[in-house]
Structures are given as C-alpha cells and as structure tokens.
Amino acid sequence: MKKARLSRRSFLKGAMATAVTGPWVLRFRGVAEAGPLEDRIIAAAKKAGPADLNGMIWSLYYRNMKRLSDEFKEKAGVGVKDIQDLSIFVIPQRAMAEAVSRSPKIDFFHIDSNMIPSLASAGLIEPLDGYMAEVGYKLEMLANFPSFMKYKGKTYGIPTDGNVHIQYVRKDLAENPEEQKKFSDKYGKPLAFPKTWEDSLQIAEHFHRPDKNLLGYAGLRNRANGVTWWYMNFYSAGGFPFNDDLEPTINTPAGEYAMDIYLRHKKVSHPEAPNWGTPQMIPQFTQGNAATGQYWDGTARQIESDPKSKVKGKFLYGIVPGSTFSGKLVHRSISSPLAAVLVNRYSPRKRQAALMTLYWGTLSNSIEIVTHPTWVFHDPWHAGHMTHPKVIERYSAPAMDAIAKSMQITTPPIYLTGHIEFQDVLGKHIAEAYIGQITAKQALTQTEAAWRKLIAQIGKARLKEDLVSYKAAMPTVDLPS
Amino acid sequence: MTASATETAAGTGAAPARGSRSRGIRIFKWTLLTPLFSLFFFLMPVFLLQLYFSLHSWTIYLSSWWDADYAGFDLFREVLTESRFYWAFARSFLFAGLSTVGCFIIGFGLALLMYRPFRGHSVFYVLFILPMLTVPIVISYTADMLLFRSGPINDIMSFLAGTEIRFTWLANPNFAIFTIIMLEIWNWTPFAFIIMLAGLSSLPAEPVEAARILGASRLRIFWEIQIPLLRPVIFLALILRFLEAMAEFPKTWGLLQGGPGTSTETIPVYLYIVTWRAFNVSKGAAASYLVMLLMIVIILSAIYVLRREKKALDALYEKPAGGGEA
After folding, report:
1. Which residues in chain A are contacts of B257 at CB distance < 8 A?
2. Are the beta carbons of A274 and B173 separated by less than 8 Å?
3. For residue range B204-243, what is the model confidence (pLDDT) as tens digits?
4. Which CATH number among 3.40.50.300, 3.40.50.10860, 1.10.3720.10, 1.20.1600.10 corresponds to the domain B83-314?
5. Residue A344, by phi and psi: left (phi above 0), alpha (psi -120 to 50) or beta?
C-alpha cells in the first residue's frame, strides 16, 4: 500500500489557494469580520465593560433612539441611563460650559455638527476614527457629506438627522392651467419649477394671496434661523465668507446680492415671519397655507405622512433654486443644524459612549430611527436611506429624490472654530436689516467689522487651519446629477 | 462694714456683670458678623474671578483661563464705546420703568379694593396672586400661543370691537417690547398688590377715623392721609420691582430672544448673548461689572430715598404729639 504523503509543494500550493480564496469564502459567509456590523459593535462594547451613560439630548430626538439604547444595554451592557433634556438650539451653550469645566459627567452630546470645530478646539470631543476602525464602521453619506463630521482630518460625529433644505412648490397650484396662463401672461414665461432665486420669487409673488390665507413664500426670517436661508443665497452667488488669508469677504457683490434676494422675500412672506420659528412655519406647509418655500426635508415627511396633513401628494419637491450671479448656474442647499452624536473626551466611559453612538448609526438602526412612526426631526442622512423602501414610503419618492440630489449640493454654515459666534453676529445684522433697523449695506459692513474682531479674538492662525476643513465640506458640483 | 469694704463688695459685684455684658455684646456682634463674613468670602472668589476675566482677554478656545493675556481696561472701553450696550440699557430702563409703574398702579388699585375684608375676599386674594406663582418661562410660551396674529387674543379683541383686529404683538419691532412689558405687568402685579395690601392694612386707624369725623371726603382722606403715610411702602414696592424688572430675562428670551432684530435686546439678554452665544466670557465679565456698578448706584439712591421717607414719616408721627403738648 502506498503511503499518502503530503509533499512540500502540495502543502504550499494548498496554503496559497486557501490564502487567496479563504477570505472570499469567509466574507461570503459573513464570518471574516465576525458577523454583521451591529454584532461587532456589541462584541466591542462587551469587551469595554458595562456602563450607564449620561447624554445631553433633546427628548424629542431621543424618543426614537431609546429602544435601540435599551437593546444595546441588554445585548452589550451599555445603555443610556439619564439624559439632560435640552433643545438642540440650547445644547451648544451647555456643551461649551462642559468644555470650560472639563466635566466628565456627560458622556455624549446630541448637537449641531457645525459645532465640531469649536468643541474640538475647546478640547471637549473625542475623535471616533479609532472606534470606527475597530468595528469596521464606515460613514456612508452621499457626496462629501461625511466631511460635515470631520475636522482636521478626524471624524468627530455620527449623524442622526441629515436636515437638508429642499424646495417646495404646491403642485396643485403650479399645474393649474388657469394659474399657468395668468403667470405666463404676467411674466412672459411658463410657470415651471424654479431654477433660480428670481424664478422662485416670481412664483411666490404670483401666489401670494394673504386675503385668501395663502402665503407666496414660507421660510424662516427670525433672528435665530433666518441666517440659514441667507447662506443659500450667498453661496449660490459664488460667495464664501472668508478668503485664504481669513479676511471677511461678506461685504462683496455676492453678499449684496444675497441680502437683496433675502430681503425681497419680505413682500411675499407672513407679516409675523420676523418672529416665527418652525412651530409656526411647518403648519403653514401642512395646512395648505404655503405655496412655495425652501425648508428642511422633514417637512416633506410631515406633508406626506402626517394624518393631519391637508396637502398629501400636493407638493412638488426639488433642489433649492440657484443663482447665475457668478456667471454660471450654481445651486447651494444647506444642512444646519445637522444633528449628530459627539462623545465627551473627558468621560471615563467614552469608549462605551462611542460604541453606543456607532450602534445608533448603523444602516439598519438608523433606518429604524428615521422611519419611526412618530416623526421627531430625524431625517435621512445615510446613503442607504436614499433608496430604502421604508424611508421612501415615509417621505415619498419625489421628496427622496430631491433629498438625495440636495445632498450633493449641500453646504455647512460657517464651519470654523467660533461657528456660533460668527453666525450669531451675522444673524443679528440680517434680522435687523429685515425689519428695517439698519440697511442691507450696513448689515454687511457691521458684520464684516464684527467678524474681524472675532478673528483677532479666536486667533487667525487657528482659523486658517480650520479653513481647510470648512472648504472640504463645500460641494464640488454646481448642479446635482 | 466699712465704706471701703462696701465699695469693694459693690465693685466685685459690678465687675463680673460688666464682663458678662461685654462678652454678651461680643458674642452678639460675632453672631451677626460671622454669616456676613462667610457670605463675603463665599462671594469674593466669584467677584475676583469675574474681575480677572474682565481684565484678561480669554476665549473658550484657550485651554486654560490662567493663560489669558492681560488686556487692562480694553474690554471695559470696548463695552463703553459700543452703542449696542447703551441701547440695551435704554431698553432695560424703558422696560423696568413702565412695567414697574404698571404693576404698581394695578396692584395698588387691587389692594384698595381688597384691604377691607368682605365675604369671599380670600378667593379673590388667591386669584390675584396666581400670576406671580406662574413660572415666567411658561408665561412666555403661553403668550407665544395666544398672541400670534390670528391667535385667540386678537380673536377676542375682534369680537369685542366688532371688527377684525389682526395686531402683530410679537413681530412688530416697534411694539414687541411693550408686549413684554404687558406680560411683566400681568406676572408681577401681585407683588405690588401684596406689598400695598400689607401697607394699607397696617395704617393706623385713628387719623382716618378723625378725618372722617371732621367731614373729610374719601378722596381727601386718600390723598392727604393714606398716601403720605404709605409713602415708604410705595417707594419700597417701586424700588424692589424696578430692580427685579431690570434683571428680567426668561420672558424676553423665551418669547423673542432679543428680536425682532434687536428690538427687545435688554441688558440681561445682551449679557447672555455676549457671554454664552458669542462665548466672549471676558467681555461679558466687563459688561457685568459695569452693570453691577450702575445697579449699585441705583440701589444706594434707593436706600437714600427710603431713609428720607422713613425720617419724614417719623417726623409726621412726632408732630401731632409735639403739637399737643404745645
């Protein structure tokens, strides 16, 4: 009988074949990375040890995330014990107070991601790249949207709410033959979905009928939020707030154009717009009192899924208007506040907090949060959300198409250390100009002067470094494909 | 017993009594001074830290506050040359002045209605006090829901007037501050009511009774007897309310955040924005110091006025007695 013998050559051949095909086989079987992403996060959290986390988060947002944190507690021993229930608009101040005191008490903050440069500069937040690599988590967002979570090359946040602005136009009104005729008679062009701000203003003007409780235009103009709308006008005109030497470039033709467009909306807006926030404005859309407007994408979900909506299926959705001011048509949307979870660097439970954050941010878990039966501001952000049937069902296919396209052209507000300081002074002057306390030109010159002081105060060198991250977050296309 | 022995005995008896009295005085003094010193030392670090910040240019992005650069009085100069600061002060004065007068007039009116008990007066007493027990931030959000253009307040006014009224209470930059003043009056009228009710109830009955017997009219009794006797109480109510109103923040911020534009940016709102929205802690500290100095001037003036009133009242009480003897 011949003795079976494994030659060295056969052994090496076999080893090589195993090395080449093995990972493919294992990957196919889902073993190479030790199971799905959620399992890997759970395994890492188990290794980190049990922890009861404290978070600073608005309960309206947390409501949709709670089941997952309870589940994580059950599976991995890490969960959320207490939350400081604060509005997302108040959390930046409170987070800064935590930064000043270097407090380890709060483990994570659910906050506007535009605060990342400020909070990282203040030393409060923990980069998440290490934790992401450990469990194989990738931030899957469209275009350069992941840059909104990055500062100086490091990832600091995982989003829960994409919050991009899209354009809303009442379909039943815009497609009405009588309205179309009246419009073309008056403006000498067909009534079509607006391509530019000027088009948008004409449509708003056409439909503005306050006596019939119909607003031509619905957009926020209050001191806190109005500035968000202004950025879209400014960026689309080719404007950018600073040059490479950190000189303010707001008091420029692009700035004047943006002010002009912004202020021209006053005649087609509600007289109480200077004081209205979202609680007053969203019902204008859902109750059929608004003909057009640019608004956060969550309003589309309210329109299409809220049982109280009177206008389901009656809106056209698309990207926000653009401008040809710079010589070419440029569209710029905005994502602010882009809600994300950030982890406290001073927390002794930061590892567990980071893993909890990643758990909320997996595709399947984030779909649960975004499509929760009760809408509480969490809007699509993950690339996988854009085509997921459950998300499409909540927002409608046309709205999801508009959201996906808008993400290719979306921008941050001033994404620098001192974001809130720069924005607050801009917002103040824009609000003053809107109600006629100062002129549009004064708003620009006064903002420019105040920004110079801020630059000196925060430090030009530091801000110049930040500029790289800000520019990286700006879109690279003018018109989404 | 000799005289000297008696003196010695008396001396030895008086000495311990004197000693225990002075010890008692010493203990009493320290009983008063200890909490005062404790309070002083408790507050001092805050004032010193604030002084440090106001003299140093510190931003939140400098890791340690002790690394801040010395700025001298630059920040004070910056605040004092900023028109925004003076505007905020003017708005605060307008707000505090008008709301104090409003609270006082209505509160005093209610106290006049209530100071002679009647059947069921305690029900009204509770009703009149309720606004003061309402949390200011709740008032601001409730007002937000009531005062919008097509809201219930305008509806009620339209119903009463028989014509459609669509007044913009909150979005009109020229009127927004008056809306907040009205809310402040609603919120704090009970404060003036309680003080004036206490003042009216504690008035001596004899002068009023005597005037009535002599045939003085109610109006004359009110102007010539009750009002002069109530002057210190009136000043107390006005001063306390004014100081409190100068610091009003929750309603102004909760309802308007200083807007529309900057039309309701009062001193507390300004300080909050500078310190916690612009994160300019050093400038906020400098501005706070300036505000504190001004408030000290107001408080000292108020104390002076109250003392003067007290003296005048004492003299008023003394005069009839002196006159009688003459």
Report:
1. 222-224
2. yes
3. 989 999 999 999 999 999 999 999 999 989 999 999 999 9
4. 1.10.3720.10
5. beta
